[in-house]
Amino acid sequence: MTTPNISIRKHIRHPPADPIEPTSTLVLMSHSSHFVDIRIITSPNDSLPNSDESPLSSLDWAFAGISTSSTPSEPGGPYHSAWSHWIDSKTSNPEKDEGMMYVQPGGDVLECGENINKTTGEVDKYEELWGDVPVQRVRKRIEDGEGHVSIVAEAEDAERSIRGMIVRVGDWCQGILKVGEEIMVERWHWTGGGGWESIARLGRGKLLQCALMFEEGVIGEGKRYEYEGLEWEIVELYHWK
To answer: Cβ contacts of residue 98 below 8 Å, gap of 6+?
Structure first.
């Protein structure tokens, strides 16, 4: 088990090229190491796509699953991490996703590994720099006095080729749903007095509803609920100070 975490990607680099960041990439990691990683193509002057009509061409990559990490041989030393893709926007047969993690002097983490270089189509070395985002409390009655919260919901319907996962860590929530080859993703943020705000949404359909994670009557580990004919289960509800 791990402390729930929110991280953003600061850049990606295929040496010897310079580092770039063409996306808005946010990863939410739960106490049980469930994660949702959504990467949306953007530019500094653009807002993120946020409707059913948003083109999926704006989605660079989205995937969800469970992560594992080794223990560093010494405090602050490098360690190995791997991400098992239970859902992947690019494929139904995801390849191995793993890398070595190097903690930087300022606290960021540099991930180093190999992947397909989209420019050349060849397997190439890559580097990704990750930075943590502080997890904020959300003051709603069910959480008063409980501190921070991490919640994971899953859905699966093999007959309809459906898999979905929603992860909420504190004041951020992300979800991904795959129906056959169709993809839907959402990103939400708690804005305090303004409540929960939809930050990004791509893909058509109503089966993915992150907003259900905010309803007090739904939040309960092991509890199941149905929406638009699809059953979701809360597989984690974790509080920490």
So the answer is: 80, 81, 82, 83, 113
